[in-house]
Design goal:
Elements lengths: L3 E6 L5 E8 L2 E13 L3 E8 L4 E7 L5 E7 L6 H13 L4
Antiparallel strand pairs: 1-2, 2-3, 3-4, 4-5, 5-6
Length: 94
Amino acid sequence: MALTVESTPGLRGEPEPAVVWFGARRVGVRAIEDRWFAPMQRWYRIDADDGQLYVLRHDLASQAWELAALTRREILPDAVERELRTRARTGPLS
């Protein structure tokens, strides 16, 4: 699926997604969860402000962005979401 991506300079100064447009629908990037690199392509798994995880592919030769995957996520209560994020940053409790 073709889409429009607003980007900011990231690792090594390469463009990283900040906002994704699916037609007229705007989705903000809360965090880049993971990155994969190939000689002429980059993939980004993003945590979007609509609560979904998307995998975006950026072709460096054409500068085109594509939706590679969508992972629907169950909406968790805010307290559970905060606890999971805290544990991801600090490690599991002893």
